[in-house]
Amino acid sequence: MISSMMLAVIGVGLLAGVLGAILGLGGGVVVVPALEFVLPRFGQEISISQAIAASQVGVLAVGLSGAAAYLQQGLVRARTGYLLSPYTIVGGALGSFLGLVLPARAVATVFSLLLLYSAYNLLRGLRRIEVAREPSPLVPPAMTFAGVMSGLLGIGGGTVQVPVLNLMQGMPIRQAIATSTFIMGLTAVGNALVYQAGGLLDFRLAAGVAFGVLIGAKLGAGLQSRIPAARLKLFFSLLLIYTALSLLWKYWGQG
Predict the structure, then answer these.
(1) Cα(160)–Cα(52) distance, integer angstroms
(2) What is the mean pLDDT of residues 98-110?
(3) Consecutive H or E run containing 120
(4) How far apart are CA 153 and CA 98, in angstroms?
(5) CA-CA to 161 of 20 to 30 Å: which in 19, 50, 88, 151?
């Protein structure tokens, strides 16, 4: 029989999968803080590094499930994804190593600042016309940075990748979300292997998250096409701001 704690973990994965597929952020932005807040209610303490390790498997799940749905809808720019994924994979390996050695407060602070910056970028671009534009030469280093954040923070990199693809690569928001989901699945494989080698990956916890994410990602990919682009950006930004402030309060406000 499934314990109440595992049902809660699956529920976290389900919510993360829905939001992750809709917003192209891998679900880690939900999984990492949610596991830290939920598991202690069931008497199980978890470090942010352990939550990030479990989130990597969830990122892989949402990448596989969400990307398959988006490929069927013709929203993924696969060639762009293949060209940019090496940058995120290398960055992800570096970020995962940093996640093994940096203190929890430092990781949480970087996570929060990244979320606030991504929210600012998306809010700033709310009024942009959704048409293709010429890509910036800064896209490759920005995607490498997205990979580092993916490995370090377990967020799939979508919090950086979606603004980069939308605002710098010149993709309309729906294609940016779909292509980000495609890339993050490739990146998460290497990230998960690094955390597993470091002894931080709880396979039972990761399996519960991944199960919920797989179901949620399928639902989210279907809902994404029904939500206006401007509303997607606004909702994404508000979610990032709330998560960032919650983490800063936990690691600094109560310290």
Answers:
(1) 17
(2) 82
(3) helix 104-124
(4) 10
(5) 50
- Report the distance separating Cα 236 and Cα 221, nearest Å: 15
Structure tokens at 115: 């979320």
Q: Is the CB of residue 177 less than 8 Å from the CB of residue 24?
A: yes
| In contact, 252 and 54? CB cutoff 8 Å | no
Query: At 7, phi and psi to the nearest 5?
Result: -65, -40
The whole-angstrom separation of Cα 187 and Cα 157 is 9
Q: What is the pTM of this model?
A: 0.72
**How far apart, in whole angstroms, are the C-alpha atoms of residue 142 and residue 187?**
15
Q: What is the pLDDT of residue 246?
A: 77
What's the full length of the chain, in residues?
A: 255
**Residue 176: Cβ-neighbour burial (10 angstroms; 0-12, 13-18, 19+):** buried
Asked whether 182 and 63 are in contact (CB, 8 A), the reply is yes
Closest CA to 20 of 253, 216, 176: 216
d(CA 78, CA 178): 10
DSSP code string of 138-205: THHHHHHHHHHHHHHH-STTHHHHHHIIIIIS---HHHHHHHHHHHHHHHHHHHHHHHHHTT---HHH
For 217-236, write each residue's pLDDT tens digit.
778 767 767 777 677 778 77
